[in-house]
Amino acid sequence: MEQVVVESVSYLAVCRNCGAQLECWGTQALVGGRLRWDVESSCSACADALAVCGGTVPAERREQMLAEHGPARLHASGPSATGVAIMRVLRGELGIDLASAKALAHRVVNGDCTGTLPEMEHLARKLQESGITAAATRP
Asked: pLDDT tens, 12-32?
């Protein structure tokens, strides 16, 4: 069974029910080979509570996670870490064009590809499934 990889942040928003300040907790997780974004919130003024599961992390929350936890790095090495093999995985997982995949593959080999820990671990596992030695680390 694969290990679940999780990063979380807390933030404030406006309660949809009463307009008071709402406490929110967002979690990006790598579960069962898939990235997911879950949010729980509760209002201390009206007791409204909400849980939204399985979405995509909003850019603002992703930036908050990177600021609070620091970026993780993805690195691939060894004879199996050829540009073509890495590009194939990156294009399949990220849906990017050939030029973008080539640039990103170069960053992966050089250890310059960064993101949240769940994102980098997801890509590392996909690379490993393709026989490429890869790891997600936090400096």
From this structure: 999 999 999 999 999 999 999
The residue ranges of every structural domain in the chain are 5-69, 72-137
CA distances, 68 to each of 38, 59, 75, 128 (Å)? 18, 14, 22, 28
Backbone angles phi and psi of 46, in degrees to 5: -120, 0
Which of the listed CATH numbers 3.30.1390.10, 2.70.70.10, 3.40.50.2300, 3.40.50.10540 matches domain 72-137?
3.30.1390.10
- The tokens 């069962």 sit on which residue? 32
- CB of 22 closer than 8 Å to CB of 13: yes
- Output the pTM of the full model: 0.90
